[in-house]
Amino acid sequence: MMSKKIKLESHMGIAFSTIGGQKYLFPGWIPVEDHISFDDVEVINPYRNVKVEEYKITGSRGNKYTVTNRNGNFSCDCPAGKFRGACKHSTQVQKDLGLVE
What we know:
Structural class: mainly beta
Helix content: 10-25%
Largest sheet: 3 strands, antiparallel
Radius of gyration: 21 Å
Number of strands: 8
Distance between the termini: 61 Å
Strand order of the largest sheet: 2-3-4
Number of helices: 2
């Protein structure tokens, strides 16, 4: 007899733990029966439908950076982008795409 899989939405891995005689599925502290194993769980990534676009940029001093667009949220791997979250590279890509003036 084939049992129904437990569906768990998570971007992390899953784990089991038994506490006080009760087996739990993590993340989420989901009580499960003792016989439940990893094969009985279907992990659904909540980010599976996120559209990701990457743009390779050459900075003013010749350094290479990547500007990433995740569903309209722009980021850059340059020092300013990592520190402030916004930089001239991501702003320029948005201008080039006609998203900002």
